[in-house]
């Protein structure tokens, strides 16, 4: 029997954010949490304040762990870095609490335990350019957590999710790129069939840490500045904005280089024989001027594929989760 | 460049044979897809069209493929509610072994430079002390298929195919100059013990000196009940098929304990010895593993009967891949489990390997249509039958030897 729409969830498990998508009435509903946490010393007063303000947290002995969206604000207040359950698109091997925190965050976005037969489709990154990073462990662990919750689980390449979320009008033909926190994921599909995919290791975190290193700021501070109206307009009065511009360029150039390499390595892609759309999504694609700058780099690269349009996703933060939901519903 | 192609969520290698459908097919399918306003239904239709055509691709010529592709597209109607029970082509997911797909580089050539009654010197700087060397039972062992589909061996071998690394877990003195006398005394006592019991082929003492104890043509009593597999071949009871290298050390278990268990001189010695053995016998890097990874307890049906080097083995410094991450074949091949003690002493990487093996077991059970406990019981029975056959064969062999004597 086909699943009803209420029983299906699309889940974008990104380095920076976890987003759950559900079909609601005629549209889509989204629930998102920052994929981060911060630990603070336990005190009864602090715990009471957090509880009163409905800040997601848990008490572990002498520490309180604040996770999700509020973690960044608390970290900024205390002038400490947030801790990250994931890095470069996969579970963070250097973070001992990664699995425990991912479990909490997933619980937070998924809500109540599902009834039997509920289905979830989660996104996984593609292998990285020039490396054989192992995503198997990451994928297996996430799959296991979701199964433990009681879901039927499947996974989906992140770039392909962007295509399923955004390129309906071209019959799911084109290039989808997710500029995420840890990675940039790229996929090309032809009439829904994935043709190639890859990831590059320079995402939002790379921009934050690189800009922080040259300006002497905390990476978390840089991230907040970046998200506070930064635009790629070519006019920067502050050093931190100049640094951000440099590393945004670096991130975009890595993706363009990856595309060029992928097309040159494949004898199939140029035979598509028609212009295809390219859609940009992800939190790192949000600054004003991003699309124009990326289009310029694409034009300079003289790729063997012509693009009918290069556009931002209708909602860049939620396109991947929406695509995962569409894929799950189509199963 | 790493590229992937396949159905969503399935990790398959980039298919260089992929071609877009012919233009007329594309136009027909595209037109029909555009008649479907719902994005989910449209995606479902396109996926089914593609999988319907791909079923026939690999066995037919391109003209027939095109015709079938076209027919497939034409015959598949736009979806309606009644299509719900038509499931698309499903391919069983498998858990790939990390790095399995990449071709393994050849070990660098290492050759014997000098041999005296007391030592051997090799081209990579390796020096082996040989004055303690003894012979033991000749090496001969069965080779099984890695899928363990039959308990009969698929062949027999007489040369080492792998290395098992051990720690002696013997008495230790602080590694300080003032302790020289005690360090040497403990090392010599260890060598005498190992020689008497034919415990290992090689011992590396704390100064990095390498002693050959049991000659390479003989088996040594180093790995008892044990299991390993790679490259389509599988081995049980590795005394005869794998060489045993013991580092004089007490290994520290778990990730929380800090500090190296062996000295830098031992790491260097293990590296050059491994290079020589891999070069001499063409040993796969995947077959260079630690005792904790291969040791099993048949009676308890658990792995990790021995736990030496359950964590912190310096694979990287020995020029080897992180073999801890390889799913232990005893788990998915014979349904063995592990206890909380083993989980505690295992490092992060080995625990990852265990998780992967468990996942593979679950997938195999699902593919067999059995619940995991039933599937596990079937695998354990397979192991018992295999070991019984092997023991019977060994007993007959010994009986034969006695008659000839």
Describe this structure in words.
The complex is a heterodimer of chains A (331) and B (405). Chain A has 331 residues and is an alpha/beta fold. Chain A has a domain at 164-312: Nucleotidyltransferase, domain 5 (2-Layer Sandwich), CATH 3.30.420. Chain A has helices at residues 44-52, 69-78, 98-110, 136-149, 158-166, 204-215, 219-226, 239-265, 290-301, 319-330, and strands at residues 8-13, 17-24, 27-34, 37-41, 57-60, 63-67, 86-87, 90-91, 119-124, 152-157, 174-179, 184-190, 193-200, 276-281, 307-312. In chain A, strands 3-2-1-9-10 form a five-stranded mixed β-sheet. In chain A, helix 3 (98-110) crosses helix 4 and helix 8 (239-265) crosses helix 9. The radius of gyration of chain A is 20 Å and the shape is globular. The termini of chain A are close together. The relative contact order of chain A is 0.16. Mean pLDDT of chain A is 87; it is low at 1-5. With 405 residues, chain B is of the alpha/beta class. Among the domains of chain B are: 23-82, no CATH class; 113-323, Peptidoglycan recognition protein-like (Lysozyme-like), CATH 3.40.80. Chain B has ten helices and 14 strands. Chain B has helices spanning 23-34, 39-54, 62-75, 180-197, 264-281, 291-294, 329-334, 340-345, 348-368, 372-404; strands spanning 112-115, 119-122, 127-129, 141-145, 155-157, 162-167, 202-204, 210-212, 227-230, 233-236, 242-247, 288-290, 296-297, 302-303. In chain B, helix 1 (23-34) packs parallel to helix 3 (62-75). Residues 1-18, 54-102, 253-258 and 400-405 of chain B have low confidence and may be disordered. The chains are: A alpha/beta (331), B alpha/beta (405). At the A-B interface, helix 4, strand 10, strand 13, helix 8 and helix 10 of A face helix 1, helix 2 and helix 9 of B.
